[in-house]
Amino acid sequence: MSSTQRLQDETASAAAPRQTWNPGSPKEPTIRLDGIEKWYETGDGVVHALAATDLVIRDGEFVVLLGPSGCGKTTLLRMIGGLIAPSRGHLQVMQRDLWKNGKRQPDAGSDLGIVFQDANLFPWLTVEENVALPLELKSVPKAQRRSRARALASLVGISGFETRWPNQLSGGMRQRAAIARALSHDPEILLMDEPFGALDAMTRDIMNIELQNIWMQTRKTIVLVTHSINEAVFLADRIVLLSPRPGRINTVIEIDFERPRSLDLQTNEKFQAIANRLRHRLTGNA
Question: Which residue ranges make up each domain of the chain?
C-alpha cells in the first residue's frame, strides 16, 4: 500500500460521522491519588521523580497530563496503570486500592487498558489476532474474540484491515490497532502514554480527531500523557500541568469547548489564549 493511499484511508476514517456525547450529571471518582510520591534508586543516588500529588479523576473524564521531559508524568501514569509501585501515598482505581504494601492488587487492575508510544503489535499475528490477544489469554471462545475484534476494528477506523500484518499498516493504523487491543476487554479506564508522539504532524492531527471520536462513543475515562500543548488543549476536559522534577501539580485547567471539536478550533482566540498560558507556565514566564 502506498503512503498516499494510507493517508487517504486514515483521513476518510477520521472524517466519518460519529455519535455525539451529551454530558450528564457529575460522576463518581474513577481514580484517586492521595499523597502519591516516587523515588528511584540510581547509581548516582536517589532521584525524587514525583513529589506528593493529590488528584481525583472522575468517571468519563478526558484528562491530559502535560509537562516538560522528566517531570514525572509518565511515572504517574505507570503507577496508575499498576506498572510501578508508588514510594508513598494511597492510590485507588474504581474505589479499590491498587497498591498495598508495595504490591499490586490483581483485582484492581482489571479495569485498565494501556496504550504506549510504540504500538507493540506482534508481527507474527494479524491485526485481528493482535486485537483479540487479551481475550485469548482470558480463554474467551474464538468466535467471541473474532466478533469483538471486528467490532473494535470498526470503532477505531481499520475495518477491512483485520487480516493484514502489522508491517502492512502505516504508523497511524498500527496505533489504531493498539487502541483497539487496549479496549478489547472493555476496561473502564484507558491510559495513553504519548500514543501519537512518533507520528508525523498530519497523521497526529487525524489521530487526535479519531481519539476524540472513540472517546465520545465509548465514554471511557481517558488519561493521556503528552508534550504537545495543542494536543492537550484540543483533547482534554482538564489539563493537569506538572512542574519540573520532582514533578508536582503546577496548575489544573478546565477546557470547556463544545464537542465534537474540529481542527479549526486551534485558530480560535480562546484556544490560543489557553495554549499561551500553558506555554508561559512551562517556560517559567507565568
Answer: 27-111+187-286, 122-186
Is pLDDT above 70 for 249? yes
Retrieve residue 36's grid coordinates. 502519591
The answer to whether 225 touches 73, Cβ cutoff 8 Å, is yes
- Characterize the bridge pairing of strands 45-58 and 62-66: unpaired
* pLDDT tens digits along 118-134: 999 999 999 999 999 99
CB 72 within 8 A of CB 60: no
Instruction: Please identify which residue in the block is written with the cell numbers 488543549.
Output: 233
Q: How far is CA 90 from the centre of its chain?
A: 22
β-strand partners of 216: none
The partner residues of 111 in beta bridges, in order of sequence, read none
Please state whether the peptide bond connecting residue 246 to the residue before it is cis, i.e. omega within 30 degrees of 0.
yes
Instruction: Quick: pLDDT tens for 212-248.
Output: 999 999 999 999 999 999 999 999 999 999 998 888 9
One of 3.40.50.300, 3.40.50.720, 1.25.40.850, 1.10.3720.10 is the CATH number of 27-111+187-286, namely 3.40.50.300
* CA separation for the pair 180, 214 (Å, rounded): 10
